[in-house]
Write a structure and sequence with these properties.
By secondary structure, this protein is an alpha/beta fold. It has four domains: about 130 residues, no CATH class; about 70 residues, no CATH class; about 55 residues, no CATH class; about 190 residues, Uracil-DNA Glycosylase, subunit E, CATH 3.40.470.10. About 35% of the residues are buried. Bound molecules: iron/sulfur cluster (SF4).
Amino acid sequence: MNATDAPLAEARGATAPRAVRLEREDDWEGWRDAARRLLAAEVPPEDIVWHAADSADDLFAAGQELPPPPQVELRVPRAFVDLAETAILHSDPERFALLYRLLWQVTHHPGLLSDHADPLVRRVELMAKAVRRDIHKMRAFLRFREIETEDGASRFVAWFEPEHHIVRANAGFFVRRFAQMRWSILTPELSVHWDGAALTESPGAERPQSPGDDAFEEAWKAYYAAIFNPARLKVGAMVKEMPRKYWKNLPEADLIAPLIASAQGREARMIEQSVPRAEERPVSLAALAEEARGCRRCPLWKGTSGCVFGEGPADARLMLVGEQPGDEEDRAGRPFVGPAGHVLDRALSEAGIGRGEVYVTNAVKHFKYVMRGKRRLHQKPDAAEIDQCRWWLDREIGLVRPRAVVMLGATALRGVTGKSGAIGKMRGRPVRLAEGTGLVSWHPSYVLRLPDAAAADRAYAELVEDLRLAAETARQV
Ligand code: SF4
């Protein structure tokens, strides 16, 4: 934050609004510090003009001195902090002012944030939503191309054009995902670089600085063509999920039109050949499990004891899909053997199903966790990790060919169907799958985590009910 007088403010005299200058377009810390001081000094929103130093709109060369930091800690609802931290990355130049206005109103009217019809709350929520979407698109549609650097080493370079100021906030995701690679992400506003140890920044770049073609691109195209499943093709949904503006930076974009054009014929051939879910099918579950042990499709394999594959009869009529192995499963190398497994065993027995009759697996095959002291604490897999691991789950389902598949929790739902949904609303309704009938239920660990005993009993009873329905479905179909 700069602390000299703004010439414009001086020219306007004592009644001119106070100019507050932030260091960057995504300067959350700067905004938070300034907002705390201004709020403590009771400076109303209409008396402030906000400005980012690196914005194109350079009306103010400097900001005015801020009031001193508050003596007492200001208490702001956590929900506001979460919302503001995301919304501040929006490209709307008014966002700093809107957020301060909202903060002002929240401190004067606690509870305002739950009024989703309030125009200001609504506007800021929509801004945060647009930012989250942009972050997701960057993660989904950014493609690295390999180049050789002057020292003969290889480096991966990607070009992306975000709508909002998300690059710095999103860089950590790519560091975690591609920790072993040396890479650069070039965007018009800011470029970030990872050398395997440190993240650095440089100014924005222009499209021609990023390489347009390489061997990696060909490999990517081949992979995309291989995973393209004509039986699942919905052109409208595909364009909605993958907007055309991103196509120019996607190597596989060249393939989309011909693949769509040939989809009908390919689908017919698939039906003819009775290949129900995936083009490549290892001959046995044991071979597939062996292959999965070497999987490096996402970083979750690191720091685990190994891949925890499914187990049960290869021709089971009923398949249960959970989230991911936990600490005990990772050590044992078997699914559902920890506390959640004990709940599942009890529920299966009450539903009249022997555990030995069902095939039990997880949507994600490696244990995701964070270290807390010496303990490994479970972490929910994110959408990208679930989607990567679908490659294995698809094939597992394709080999077992169960009559009914129970999706235990939201991760399993996404792993099996590729879609998200509220478990409470979807329970009890069959879902059509390429292979058998799907049913959704609570994950046993959800039942364990519920703090209210009555709610836990209810969820457990529903789990038993859903398993019973699944067993009946598997017998009938
Ligand atoms: S979690 Fe799944 S996709 Fe990721 S490394 Fe393990 S098996 Fe591969």
